[in-house]
Amino acid sequence: MLKRIYHLGYAVEDLEVAARFYRENLGVEIEEPEEVEEQGIRAAMFRVGDSAVELVEPTCPDSPVGKFLRKRGEGFHHVAFEVEDLEAALAELKERGVELIDERPRVGVGGSKMAFIHPKGAHGVLTELVELPEKEA
Amino acid sequence: MLKRIYHLGYAVEDLEVAARFYRENLGVEIEEPEEVEEQGIRAAMFRVGDSAVELVEPTCPDSPVGKFLRKRGEGFHHVAFEVEDLEAALAELKERGVELIDERPRVGVGGSKMAFIHPKGAHGVLTELVELPEKEA
Q1: What is the dihedral of CA B131, B42, A49, A15, to 10 degrees?
Q2: Where along the sequence do coiled-coil regions lie (chains A, B) (predicted)?
């Protein structure tokens, strides 16, 4: 079901400071930051092999990432795996009784579909499943 | 400097329970568990694309992973990135003042070299760098 690690999401206090850390010390190329208003975040990513790391800064303290930072501090926030067929994956997980945040796919950037498994349902790891539009897959 | 995500390490209370969760619900193939006595852990991995996820159970409550579990509960523990030349990477990081757990490579399974950047030095993410022996790279 899982094709690859699509990205890791790291929660950071200050996107520019974290981006500079990774650019200067680990030699990565940081892409242009994007703001996602409905999630209350700004994010910038860098590619690593076939995957990426997304640095995520809350723009609002009460967004999910804002609350996460207050509670746990900076660090790993979620992992996203690419899947072939998200609706089928969600139906199967639901039937097996796995606790989901999203029972139906949400439409994300560029027409990709995404849904989260609840960390309680996945041994403490907030796990996103992503299905890419055909041209990108 | 970073070639790919080599693996993610998840801290789990019970390796068999976590392995069953990932095998049955996400369809992954779990490799044979291995015990690493000097780290006080048992671990089993599954491959995802060009990367892997390692499920890590402490065999001793005072091992680093045992302490982590008591403090934070199950979840993401560390990420490992493959690098070309670990000694050069560590020398550069040290020169730039990045806080390291290992200033020199440790030799891991199968002759690979590994070292950890301190999570304080990497925005809260325990980050391992791995250099593989030539035949595997």
Answers
A1: -100
A2: none
**CA–CA separation, A80 vs B23, rounded Å?**
17
Q: Say which of A81, A82, A123 has its CB closest to residue B12.
A: A123
Determine the Cα–Cα distance for residues B16 and A54; give it in Å rounded to an integer: 31
* CATH 3.10.180.10 is right for the domain spanning B2-131: yes
State which amino acid sits at residue B81: F
Tens digit of each residue's pLDDT (9 = 90 or more) over B50-75:
999 999 999 999 999 999 999 999 99
Grouping H, G, I as helix, E, B as strand and the rest as coil, residue A25 is helix
Nearest CA to CA, how far is A104 from chain B (Å)? 17
* CA of residue B102 relative to chain centroid, distance: 14
Closest approach of chain B CAs to the CA of A49, in angstroms? 4
ipTM given for this complex: 0.94
Give the Å distances, CA to CA, from A32 to A47, A53, B34.
Answer: 12, 13, 41
Per-domain boundaries in chain B: 2-131
In terms of Cα–Cα distance, which of B105, B103, B111 is closest to B85? B105
